[in-house]
Amino acid sequence: MNNESVGPLLQLHYLPLVPTFSILKKSTSFCLLSKENYQKQTLRNRTTILTANGVLDLVIPVKHDHRKITEVKIDYDQNWVKNHLKAIESGYKHAPFFEYYYPYFQGIYNKKNLLLFNFNLELLTFIIKLLKIEVQINQTPVVAELEDKEIIDIRKHLDTMTSIPYRQVFGSSFIPNLSVIDLLFNMGPDSKYYF
């Protein structure tokens, strides 16, 4: 092993959870798995937000005619874009920075990207820019290609990471491990200091 570091290894998720960005903030680069097989019922096509009625899962419907993550098509036969945008607006319209960030997210959603991977990558890249995280995004087809490099596989640790409480729109007790949009809409430009 030559100990060349490629940074953390992660899968590309839909509106990733806040702890993902804590790790990216501490890295100069990270590696996305781009040729892995798509697995149902994972964060690749789902995220969690906070609403007046509590925690809400948002799921992007996909067509299951491809196995590779970069080939999975989003199913626009279902009205999920309108539903997701409505849920995000309902959950965060009273958040201090909602009006500032929401139009940008709305624009990305309304492009109707055909592939899940490309849609998630566009969201991730935009969020990294908002958070002013200077990190290089690499892609690797398979984990085996990284055998001679030093990697930190964070994919299995996201659920166990803890979040530092910040002010949220609903409730008196902090709800951790939500989508990063919860942090952005509530903390705005100060989100970059959260990590």
Q: Nutshell version of this structure?
A:
This protein is of the alpha/beta class and 195 residues long. It has helices spanning 18-25, 80-92, 98-110, 116-130, 180-187, 191-194, and strands spanning 4-10, 29-33, 46-51, 54-59, 62-63, 73-74, 136-140, 149-153.
Account of the 3D structure:
The protein is of the alpha/beta class. It has one domain. It is built from 6 helices and 8 strands. It has helices at residues 18-25, 80-92, 98-110, 116-130, 180-187, 191-194, and strands at 4-10, 29-33, 46-51, 54-59, 62-63, 73-74, 136-140, 149-153. The strands form 3 sheets. A 4-stranded parallel sheet has the order 7-2-1-8, with no helix packed on it. Strands 3-4 form a two-stranded antiparallel sheet. A hairpin with a 2-residue loop joins strand 3 (46-51) and strand 4 (54-59). The protein is globular, with a radius of gyration of 17 Å. The chain starts with a strand and ends with a helix.
List its traits.
globular; 6 helices; 195 residues; alpha/beta; single chain; four-stranded parallel beta sheet
Widest beta sheet: strand line-up: 7-2-1-8
The percent range for helix content is 25-40%
Instruction: Please outline the major beta sheet.
Output: 4 strands, parallel
Return the string of H and E elements.
EHEEEEEHHHEEHH
Sequence stretches where pLDDT stays below 50 over 5 or more residues:
none
Report the mean per-residue pLDDT as an integer.
86
What is the count of β-strands? 8
In angstroms, what is the radius of gyration? Answer: 17 Å
- Structural class by SSE content: alpha/beta
Query: How many angstroms separate the termini?
Result: 31 Å
Q: How much strand? A: 15-25%
Number of separate domains: 1
Shape: globular
Helix segment count?
Answer: 6
